[in-house]
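I am writing to request your help with a piece of structural work I have in hand. I am sending you one protein, given as its amino acid sequence and as whole-number tokens for its backbone shapes. Kindly check, if you would, that the fold set down in the tokens agrees with what the sequence suggests. You will find the record immediately after this paragraph:
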Amino acid sequence: MKKYQNYINGKWVDAKSGKTFENRNPANWDEVVGIFPKSSKEEVDEAVKAARTAFEKWRLVPAPKRGDILKTVGDIMVRRKEEVAMLMTREMGKVLMETRGDVQEGIDTAYYAASEGRRLFGHTVPSELSNKFNMSIRVPIGVAGIVTPWNFPMAIPTWKIFPALLCGNTVVFKPASDTPATATVLVEILLEAGVPEGVVNIVHGGGSEVGMAIVDHPDVDLVSFTGSTAVGKKISELASKNLKRVSLELGGKNAQIVMDDADLNLALEGVLWGAFGTTGQRCTATSRLILHEKIHDQFVSMLVERTKKLRLGDGLLPPTDVGPCVNEGQRNTDHSYVEIGLKEGAKLVCGGNIATGAGLDKGWFYQPTIFTGVTPNMRIAKEEIFGPVLSVIKIKSLDEAINVLNDTIYGLSSSIYTKNINDAFRAIRDIKAGITYINGPTIGAEAHMPFGGVKQTGNGHREGGWTVFEFFSEWKAVYVDYSGKLQKAQIDT
């Protein structure tokens, strides 16, 4: 096993307390991937101080030069893609095909962010006065606190860290305790690419000890967090004391609609991938399947048949379709919702138990699970489960389908399968979600597009695409008066 450290102010260091925690393989809990420092507020204070000091030089580096460093980051990630993917599978469980995609998303984000170094556009507008010039520019903000989840341990940190750096901010990074090794490799790559000392700092440890210390620190100017809605509300409350800028990407209860005119084979592939890819452990995972009554029975039969053929196992082994839950607690949560669904009167037609058998007994595996007869008011249709549990709801019309889809506190991703172009555009207009797919699953975001949701899925900011650079930079209005006399704006006009 390997012992890892924090990276603070240009040095790899242990937690001052000497405390550590283990990172284990969820497919084989006997395997310890690494030992990590269990840090505290003391390490956060040092990291923030280093980032604050480094900010004064980093903000003066021209944005295109910062972009050149991120281009190099992408090049290194290409070279190390397979290595990082295999490490990621070992520490969080999803199959190698998916972890390769996770790394590729980081590569795409690096190259996209690099190009934005030459496109941090401002605006020039006419002045209302003679001999006066008006423009607006984008400027860095300061120290960015980055707190990320375990399910996309490379992609999501890059969504945040790369635009933060490109805009001229410095970073204090707290990765999830379930996936600290991949996060450490990301920092190593940033350093290899030429990011100066103090510009990026990583502090390992628990959310309450390290994450909240970052959020609450008076010298952290902005916070970007991805995780549960419950934790996001606590972060928002804590950060509001100092009026910090906060970006929250939170929970989802995403649904795929399948209309009676849909290509059922295509829709089947979509829901299998959306519901059981990453073992259902995505904020965009398909947790609800809304089926038109005319195709309901046929589609459920097709779905159950295919789902029962999915192969569970170690994500490093080629035959595996579905990996483990990330830890025992998540698997217990999944099973508790199965019990809730049964008590609510839903019909269990597939799965519903802890998966056992050869190669599964040492990991946190759960059978891909399908409920039918689900009504919109059931808890399994309302609450985020974050596991391979799919609720099927029968509807009679497009209007009913959209109403059911919208009937949650969340609004992240959505999907509709139909050959009717009018229905597709009505869905785009009427679905309350930050993302809508037409004839595609609820998962599959691209690095150059905005990512985020409405309602209690977030607080209005977006990650990805051009929109994230708005969050990590500040607008500054500039007026240049070359008239040689005092002009009093609206008074003189």
In short: The domain at 2-250+458-477 is CATH 3.40.605.10 (Aldehyde Dehydrogenase; Chain A, domain 1). The chain has a mean pLDDT of 97.
